[in-house]
Structure formats: C-alpha cells, structure tokens
Amino acid sequence: MYKTLLGATLLLAAGSVNAQQEALQQCAGIEDSLERLVCYDSLAKKSQGESKQAEGKARGKAQAEKQKSKAERRGNSSLERTFGMEHKDKEEGQLDRIEVEVAAKEQGPYDKWRIELSNGQIWKQTDSGGYFPWDEDDTYYIERGALNSFFFGREGSNRRMRVQRVK
Residue 84 and residue 96: Cα distance in Å, rounded? Predict the structure, then answer.
C-alpha cells in the first residue's frame, strides 16, 4: 500500500512539473523580451499564489480567532476604556488649586524641602529646585500640573517647586 501511495504521489508531482515545463517552454518561445518577461512573471505569481493563498487564509483565520478569544476573556469594562485618560477627564469636584497654611518646614537630604501643612498633609519636594523664597506673612498654594504632578508656590512669586504628597 505504501508503495502504491508513493507511486501515485510521484506521478502527480511529475504531472504538475511537466505542465509547468510546458508553460516555461511557451514563454521561452516568445521573441519580444518584454512580453517574455511578463509571461515568466505571471507563471511565478501563479505558482507562489496558490501556496501562499492557502497559507494566508489559514493564518488569517487563526489570528482572528485568537483576537476574538482575547477580547471575550478581557471584556470591555469601563475601566479599560478610560485607562490612560485620567488626566484628560477631570472628575466633578476635583480642584486645580488650593491655598494652604504651612505649619512646619524642614530641609532634608540634598536640600529638598519637606512641608507639613496645618491640615495634616505632608508634602515633599521632588525636583532639584534650589532657592525657594519663604515669607511667613504670604499665602502659599498647591496647584495641579500636567500628568498628575503638583507644584507648591507662593503668591506674588514666580518661583515654585514640584512636590509629591507623602501623607
């Protein structure tokens, strides 16, 4: 049985090779070089197209099935739809700026400030600021910056420092 199957396969392969040889001989018989090139190109596309087309269909179906199963497992929750847009959509009741009263301040390592407010919040400086003008009589504020950053500043002064809430 094995020998019969092998013989049939070889016979079919020989037949397709024979048909391809005939087509190549027909192209070779064309005298005009441009027409001959077009003939060879069309033969090459036919032979590649048959095998690649079958592979492409199978691969496309597999990828589509994979994407569908991922989407079903993951689901389209509202959290997923809003992921990364937190800074774009301002929540109702969210403040952009608050005026604060400084209860205590200390300069820590690397000359960075640690500020305790009268409402109990503690903020620390995160940038490499440098000089910050302190005045006991002025009002201070914390304002929201881009990408969830915050700045501590003093009214009447253009200097401010980037801060992060610790407590």
Answer: 19
